[in-house]
Amino acid sequence: MDEFKIENMLDLTKTIAKELFNGYVYPWEVLPEIGDFIKKIGPTLDPEVYEKREGDVYIAKSAEVFPSAYIKGPAIIGPDTQVRHCAFIRGNAIVGSNCVVGNSVELKNVILFDNVQTPHYNYVGDSILGYKAHMGAGSITSNVKSDKTLVCVKNGNTVLETGLKKFGAILGNNVEIGCNSVLNPGSVIGKGSRVYPLSMVRGCVKGDSIYKKSSEIVEIKM
Fold first, then answer.
1. What is the pLDDT of residues 116-158, one digit of tens each?
2. Using CA atoms, how far apart are residues 22 and 203, in angstroms rounded to an integer?
3. Which domain covers residue 177, as residue numbers?
4. Which of 41, 115, 155, 176 matches a 20 to 30 Å C-alpha distance to 79?
5. 91 — alpha (psi -120 to 50), left (phi > 0) or beta?
6. What pLDDT sits at residue 23?
7. 171 close to 177: Cβ distance less than 8 angstroms
8. How far is residue 168's CA from residue 99's CA, in Å, rounded to a whole number?
9. Structural domains counted in the chain
C-alpha cells in the first residue's frame, strides 16, 4: 500500500491544507478533521487576499463566485477559482487556487488541491482531489456503502480498515476521471492515472495506468 500513502499520491505544496496532513500516513485519515482545520486557519488568512463571510466562509477576493452559488461554512475558496452557476458547497470544504467548481456541482467535506476541475454536474463528498485532478461531466463519488457498514480500502488481497462510514474517493495528482463514472466508497486512484468514461470503480487503481474496466487496467506507455 506504499503507493497510496500521502507522500506518494499528493503534492502538499499545492494546497493551503498542507499542515493538516502532518502526522498521518494515508490521505483519507484527515477527512474527519477538515472542518476543524478550516476554523483554525481561517482567522489567520491574509485579509488582503481573503474576505471573511458569515459562518466561517473565507473567499479569495480574486475568486469568481456566481450569484446563484451557495456556500455554507466552514469553507475556504482559493484565489482565481471559479464557483459557477448553482454550485452547492455544503461545508467542510477547502477549494484551492485556480480551481473550477462548475454548474450544479455539489461538494461536501472535501479538499480540492490547486488547479482541480469539477466542471459539470459532479458530486464530490468526503473526498480528496490532488493537484490538477479532473472529473469529467457527470462523474461522482459515492461516499456511503449501501449496507451502511464502515468503508474499507482494498488493494488486491490487502484490506485496510478506515473506521469511516462516509468516505468517497482519493485522487492523486493529475488523475483524469471520465464522464459519467462512479467512484465507489473507498476508491483510491494513484497519481497520473486515467479512468474511462462510464466506469464503475471500486478499490485501488495503481498510478500511471488506464482503467478501462475492473478486469482491464493497463500501464500508460511513456
1. 999 999 999 999 999 999 999 999 999 999 999 999 999 999 9
2. 25
3. 2-219
4. 176
5. left
6. 96
7. yes
8. 20
9. 1
Exposure string over 129-143, b if 16+ CB within 10 A, otherwise e: bbbbbbbbebbbbbb
CATH code of the domain covering residue 88: 2.160.10.10
The vertex-172 CA angle with 168 and 177, nearest 5°, equals 70
Predicted pLDDT at 88: 98
Q: In which residue are the cell numbers 499542515 written? A: 19
- C-alpha dihedral, 178 to 182 to 188 to 190, nearest 10°: -10
Three-state SS string across 61-130, please? Answer: CCCEECCCCEECCCEEECCCCEECCCCEECCCEEECCCCEEEECCEEEEEEECCCCEEEECCEEEEEEEC
**Residue 10 pLDDT level (bands cut at 50, 70, 90):** very high
Residue 43, helix vs strand vs coil:
helix
Asked if 190 contacts 208 with a C-beta cutoff of 8 angstroms, the reply is yes
* Cα separation, 40 vs 37, whole angstroms: 5
Of residues 193, 207, 173, the one with CA closest to residue 12: 173
Q: Which position has the grid cell 485579509?
A: 47
